[in-house]
Every structure is written in C-alpha cells, then in structure tokens.
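Feature request, filed as a ticket because there's no other form

It would be nice if the structure record came with a short human-readable summary line next to the tokens. Right now we just get the raw output. Example of a typical job, pasted below so the devs can see what we mean:
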Amino acid sequence: MKSFVLIGGGDVGRGNTSYETDKIDRKVVELCGKEHPNFLFIGLASPFSDSYYDTMKKIYSNIGCNTQYLKKKNIINNRSIVEEKINNADIIYFCGGDSLKLINDLNNYEITPLLRKKDNVVLVGMSAGAIMLSRRGLSDSRMLAGEVNDYEFIDGLGFVDINITPHYSERKDNLKRIIDKEEVYGLDNNTALVITDKIDYIKSKKDSHIYYISKDKEEILY
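Raw output as currently delivered:
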C-alpha cells in the first residue's frame, strides 16, 4: 500500500534536530515500518537540487535512512538507473520549487507510470511536491514566470484525490480571490497531511494549522 505525506512548507535548511520539519520527517520514516529504510530524493522541482539533496541527506541519514539521489542526468540518460532506484526506494521525496516543471518532467520522462506501479512506498511532497501528488493545488509557477498575474489552481497527478494550498498563511488572500467550487486543504508551513487508509494531521509548530476551506467557510482541522 502507498502512503502519502503532503507538507505545506517549512525550513529544512539546518539539517539538525532544531529545524522546522523534524517531527514530520520522523513521521515519514515511522510510516515505513523499517529500521533503515531506503530514502530517494527527486529534485526536479528545484534549480538547486544538488544542495537541496545535501541537506536532505543529512536530515534523513540522521534518522536512520540509507539515502540516494535521482539526478537529472540519470533521468535523461539512463533508464535502468531510474527504474532501479525507484524500485528499491521505501521513501520517495519530491522537493519544493516549480510545481509545473515537476509535473511536466515526471510525465515527459515517463516517471509517473513507475510511481503509479510502485507499491509499499511512502511518497512525500514538500510544497510543489505536495501539489504534484494532489488532484489540484494553488501554484505560483506561471506567476513567477510572468505568464499570469496571480496564483492559480493547476492540475496535479492525482495520487490523492484532494485539493491543497501549501504555505496557506501566505496564500490565504490569493485563494479567497479565486476560490469557486473547490474545497481545499490549506496547509501552513510546518504542517502535513498523512494519508494512508485515512487522513491524519501533523505539525511541528503550535501556531501552524491545517484548514479546510470552501468559498464560504474556513475551518481549522488541526
């Protein structure tokens, strides 16, 4: 069975027990049920994927994982490495960055079918990665590219049948301007949805929250 952890955002920059998403990352490892799970980092959303992986390697090595990195050059040039690393992974982590680039690359390089076929894995998405795993998410990808003037909902890959807004406290006003018939989980930084056969909530800061939002209602779930 697949498990999913959708993270709204947060500081992963320190790589020690005081960084913001520590409690969430430990939950990711706990979901595997293995003492030393294989952790695979896919950094397609970020232009700084090498340094991003260096940080995640420190974090997940410190909590018992064997860590690997699926580099862009492997994805382009060596299909057997791509398949081997995905098949061997217990945790696959998709970092933050450009959600549209991540979705397009996963489709264009035919990684999406490997992920759908893969079982007994924890798929983790941080921000852009969380949007990718969802049905739809509030994204800034085209706004940052100068193609539109505001955040917009984009289609994810639908691994989980929900809509999300990462960094919710920062995007709340933008969501209110455009929300129509959507019902959306709003994830503050340092919060995550944990989805197995049910949806659970986790947060690593007391003043961060998870919300359920419709056009006429905002409810704090956790």
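Something like this underneath would help us a lot:
The chain is about 35% helix and 25% strand.
The domain at 3-220 is CATH 3.40.50.880 (Rossmann fold).
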